Structure formats: C-alpha cells, structure tokens
Please model this.
Amino acid sequence: MKRAFLALLVVALAAAGILWWLSAPQILTARDIPGHAPDVDNGRVLFNAGGCASCHAAAGASDDARLVLSGGQLLPTPLGAISVPNISPDPTHGIGNWSMLDFANALTEGVSPEGKHYVPAFPWTSYRGMTLTDVIDLKAFLDTLPRSDRANDAGGLPFPLSFRRPIGLWKRFLLPDLPAAPAGADATVQRGHYLTVALGHCGECHTPRNFVFAPEMSRWLAGGPSPDGDGQVPNITPSPDGIGEWSASDIAYLLESGFTPEFDSVGGEMGSVVKNWAQVPAADREAVAAYLKAIPALP
Amino acid sequence: MTSFRPLVVILFATAGLTAAIAQEAPQVTRGELMEEIGKSTQVLGKMVKGEQAYEAETAVEALTTIIDDIGEFTALFPEGSETGHETRALPAIWEKKSEFEQHAQDLQDAAMKAREVAPAGKEAFAPAFQEMGKVCGACHEDFRAKKS
Model:
C-alpha cells in the first residue's frame, strides 16, 4: 500500500514536472534581435495598422488623445474584465524601462519582462507574425509618444485564472500557426497579408474560435459570434455571405471612411479600427483590400 | 423636372414620418429616422466616391434631410424604450445621455458645415463629408449594438 502510494506520488510529480517544463515561456534572447537602425515613420504606420491606441488609449479617444497610451480601459473577455496597462514611455508606470528584447518578447512571444505569459486579450497571437525589424521600428515610434503617469490597476483576473502558466500549454498545443499568404500572391497581396494577419489582427474577431478559444483557421475571417458575447462579427471573405460583392476600392474606402458600400457607418470596435486605418498610407489600405479579395471565399 | 423628383420624394417621406411619429413606438420612429439619414448619406457618398455625378442641389437636399432628422432623433429615447422592436440602441445611450446628445449635435453641426460648402463643388464638399463620416462612426462605436 505504502509502495503504491509512493509510486503514485512519483508519477504525479513527474507529470507535474513535465507540465511545468512544457508550459515554460519560450523567449527570444539578445542574439535574436537584429541590428537595425530604427525607422520612426515606419513605426507610426505599424502603430496605426496594429491598432495599439484602440485598447491602450483612453476609451473613445480621438485625434491626439490616441497617442497617450495610458491604459485603463476595461476589456470584456470570456474569463472576466481585464484592465489594459499603461504602455506609454513613462519609466515607472509605462514601459519606458523596457529593453528592445523585453518589447520583442511581449509582442512576438506573448511573454512579459517578468517571464509571465500574457493573456491573449493582448493580441500577441497576431503580432507574433511581425518581423523583428518592424518590432524595433514600432518601439522607436512608441518611445516618441507622451508619458502618462497613470498607475496600472492592481488585480486582474481572479485566482485561479490569475495563474498564467496554463497559457504556455495552450500556446504549445492549441494555438495554430498564422495563415500563410495565398499561393501566387503578388507584392501587394503579400503586404496586405502581413498587415491583415500580423498587424491589423483582424482574425482575432473576424475568425471564429473553438471551445478552447483557439481560432479555427479553416474558417479564416469567415465571421462568427462576437468575442465580447454580443452580436455577430461579419464574414469578410469574398463570398456571397461575406463581402464578395464589394470591390477592392470599397474595402479600402471603408478602412478610410468607415462607410460600407451602402454608406452605413460601421460601429462597435470597428469604429476604432477605422480611426487607426484612416491614418495609414492609402497604399496599405489598398493592400489589405487586395488580400481580402485573394483569400478563400467561405460561407 | 427630374431634378425635383428627389425633393418631392423626401418631402413625402418627411410628411409620412411626421404623421407616423404620433402613433409609432419610439424604437420604430428613431430606426426610421436613422434609415433615412443612411439613405441620404448614401446619396452624398456615391457622389463623393464618383459613382454618381456631383450635383450641389441634390447634396443640399440630402443634407437638409440629415439636419432635420438628427434634430428629432435624441428626443426618441424615453425611459422604457431601451429594448424591443429590434432596437440596436445600447444602454450607454441612457447611461451617458449628454455624450450621446453631443454626438447628435456634432452630426448636425458637421452636416450644416457641409451644406454651406456643397454649392462650391465636389472638391470643397468631399472633406466636409469625410468629417461627417467620422461623427457617424464616433457615435456608432459606443452607442449602437452589433447586428445579431
């Protein structure tokens, strides 16, 4: 009896050890960061395409107020509300003290400087597709923004959800790779793919999720229930159920103006998305449109 | 004569709406006003986009409809009309009433500015229309529910 108990204990400890090892954050090291002279103007494009202000600026902010990344919005998630952190360059309350490596690990690996997994409400799940030179340019732009001394809200998700380690298993076993560019994509479609998938993180809402909250890549951008639980997110594939009737210029015009071809003005989170995309160069909006015309049409 | 037809249609529609306000639920009336604003926006947008030839007179008519309709809009959210009749009104309308009313005022102001510059031609009108679009989106962002 005693021996059986000991054997069970050994197995349990071994299993726990394996789980601990499998769930460990995978991070970049200093050697992974390429030598690259930061391009602040490119960083500004990435900032707008990436939609940082939608969550990290104050709720409903417009124009220059969108450049103050003080955090504080409450994001509804299936696990509870999450308070968005201050990512202004303030060294105490923001991320002014972060190294380039810290920043790269946050964006592309979903791991904080303290070595904790980020909850995927922060869409590192998409930003992981960014090139590291773009990560460097984005940080250079963020470093130019105003400092905010708003202290981050204490707390966060309640225990046991505050225990982030299981996210490591989710990353390793459940999170699928990002979709590749369509076969035969020209330079415009490839640019649009990069902007849509990695920066715009369109798939976070427009691709449905399965019961473990992983995106269903076979339904890429085909819409589904809204992640915040209210209403539907539209299908944006080029099918009759999606936006197949829209021309590429209709799509680009929506990103610029917020108007659908019927001149309904989009709202909800998409209202904020349009504020971002109105600020990117027209060629990039057109690239996103070209990509959305090139992806598989899904019902 | 043809150029007057939209005006006649709008006049009849407005008259119909005014008659309807007496008997309809506010959810229905405000939905119809927003539909009419949407249709007028479409008239304007198609001219800005170049899908239809720009006509200053048509633009002024459509803008007048928008200005009148949005002027009636915010009075149509009495207590008790939070749900029902497939309304897409979000609770934020009642929670942040003054902010909601400011958005409506912003639209009226933006449409009035656009109406002032519309006779000067499409180049002058297009930026004013873009400003109107921003105002539409700003309100829909926080106060209108997604389609279900």
User: Anything to note?
Assistant: Chain B touches chain A at residues 38, 41-42, 44-46, 49, 130, 133-134, 136-148 (CB under 8 Å). The longest helix of chain B spans residues 26-49. Chain B has a mean pLDDT of 89. The CA atoms of residues 83 and 89 of chain B lie 8 Å apart.
